[in-house]
Specification:
The chain is of the alpha/beta class. It has 16 helices and 11 strands. α1 runs parallel beside α6 and α7 runs antiparallel to α15. The two termini are 57 Å apart.
Length: 468
């Protein structure tokens, strides 16, 4: 997580606490043992982050915070969607949860999961790192009595199906899908023509065995844990429909009752764990593992993402209204700016400066030279020489590989020229010596025969030499 998000978190949280009158008198004081809620066990990325946060706060030399980890959303009636409410009402003191799950209580958190708003991993990373989006979410959570401290990409949800691969919106028509992501996912699947159903894991197993279930939406890590390839699921759609973020949060009265050192500990450790989180990479690795175990794979292109997003316009619009147009616009800007930066052509290597001119007068050579390897025409003019003499109007073509004269007569002044010059762009060898032109002396009327011995008369005008 970026430092700017951390600064926003601290400023908002501390500012709110001061405005309300920081101290134990504000609200319920924390007990000796605080309780931290998380929906899953440490074997999963979300649970691992919660465990690491609890341990890091307990290990702090200054501002130590002790919090007992309670997995399985046991503090929220075994329902991840109720964890935010548990924080508000005091059943939990701290929590690490899913933004999508918590959006049931704080709708704006669904901005990360708005259908196809950030369908690529880099899109989601940019959205989660946006200070503008994070700052607005923190403000809204504070108004609900919860202090949000840090965010990290949690990855995208996948779609596993039994018989039909999902490559276009039409492929979802009539499919009976177990939807576990809450109302947003249910509504989107329904708009796309599927038949989403809410059921427990055991109910899903029974429905699958009885041929009454065609697919399931969820995180790939949970699919691996449930051994989907061995239970009849044959296709995996990596369709980027719903992103998610992990959220580190503290109940407001607990935050206000902490000392400054404890607040710093909670914030810094949450930020550090979010910054090194590999949750999104774990989901991608799990998807690859499912494919390696025999499931077919569908990866959508940007055009494919756009087709699904268009088909889901109704669901996206209704959820966007609940999230807020300003927050959705900020999220779209973050993704667009990230794509613009990623899609920009890479800058080429710097052009090496050409060697000094033969006269050594120090005339500046052109900044770039035209390519001739593809027989591109050379420029009609060259920069003036050091003495100001105009260069020849034309240059002899060398792209065909014709040999230049082996020698040229001595210059009128008899001044010796360099023995060699750089090779031309086509690789043709340059003449051993060149006539001096800086003094304006006329060249001889005739030149010796060419290297090929053809004895052909030289051209009426002498071949142009490089500008000195």
């Amino acid at each position: 997580m970026s430092d700017s998000i951390s600064r926003i978190a601290m400023a908002l949280a501390v500012g709110f606490a001061m405005a309300c009158g920081a101290g134990r008198a504000l609200g319920q004081a924390p007990s000796d043992e605080l309780r931290m809620s998380v929906a899953v066990a440490p074997a999963f990325p979300l649970g691992a982050a919660a465990k690491a946060w609890s341990e890091a706060m307990a290990a702090s030399a200054t501002g130590r915070v002790d919090a007992k980890l309670v997995p399985g959303a046991a503090l929220a009636q075994r329902d991840p969607a109720r964890e935010f409410l548990a924080l508000r009402e005091g059943q939990a003191d701290l929590a690490v949860g899913s933004a999508l799950a918590w959006s049931a209580q704080l709708p704006s958190l669904a901005v990360y999961a708005l259908p196809w708003i950030a369908p690529e991993p880099a899109d989601l990373a940019a959205l989660v790192a946006s200070p503008e989006v994070a700052g607005e979410l923190m403000k809204r959570a504070l108004e609900s009595g919860v202090v949000l401290l840090a965010f990290a990409p949690l990855g995208h949800r996948s779609l596993a199906t039994v018989d039909r691969a999902v490559r276009s919106p039409a492929d979802l028509a009539g499919l009976r899908i177990r939807a576990t992501g809450g109302p947003l996912v249910v509504e989107t699947l329904a708009v796309l023509g599927a038949r989403p159903e809410a059921m427990s894991f055991l109910q899903a197993q029974e429905a699958l065995a009885g041929g009454r279930l065609d697919g399931q939406d969820g995180m790939a890590t949970s699919f691996v844990a449930a051994r989907f390839p061995a239970t009849g699921y044959r296709h995996l759609a990596r369709w980027g429909a719903f992103g998610d973020a992990m959220v580190f949060a503290v109940r407001r009265p607990v935050w206000n009752a902490w000392s400054d050192a404890q607040r710093t500990t909670a914030l810094d450790t949450a930020r550090a764990i979010a910054g090194r989180s590999t949750a999104a990479a774990s989901e991608e690795a799990a998807e690859s593992a499912l494919v390696a175990q025999g499931m077919g794979e569908t990866r959508l292109t940007r055009a494919g993402h756009a087709a699904f997003a268009t088909a889901a316009t109704t669901a996206r619009a209704s959820r966007g209204d609940a999230i807020g147009a300003d927050l959705v616009a900020a999220a779209e800007r973050a993704v667009a700016q990230s794509r613009e930066a990623r899609d920009a052509p890479a800058a080429g290597p710097p052009v090496a400066a050409p060697p000094a001119t033969a006269t050594g007068a120090g005339a500046a050579p052109p900044a770039t030279l035209p390519a001739t390897a593809t027989r591109a025409a050379l420029p009609a003019t060259l920069p003036a020489t050091a003495t100001g003499a105009a260069p020849p109007a034309t240059l002899p073509a060398t792209a065909t590989g014709a040999a230049l004269p082996a020698t040229l007569p001595a210059t009128a002044t008899g001044a010796a020229l360099p023995a060699t010059l750089p090779a031309t762009a086509t690789g043709a060898a340059p003449p051993a010596t060149l006539p001096a032109t800086a003094t304006g002396a006329a060249l001889p009327a005739t030149l010796p025969a060419t290297a090929t011995g053809a004895g052909a008369a030289p051209p009426a005008t002498p071949p142009a030499t490089p500008a000195k």
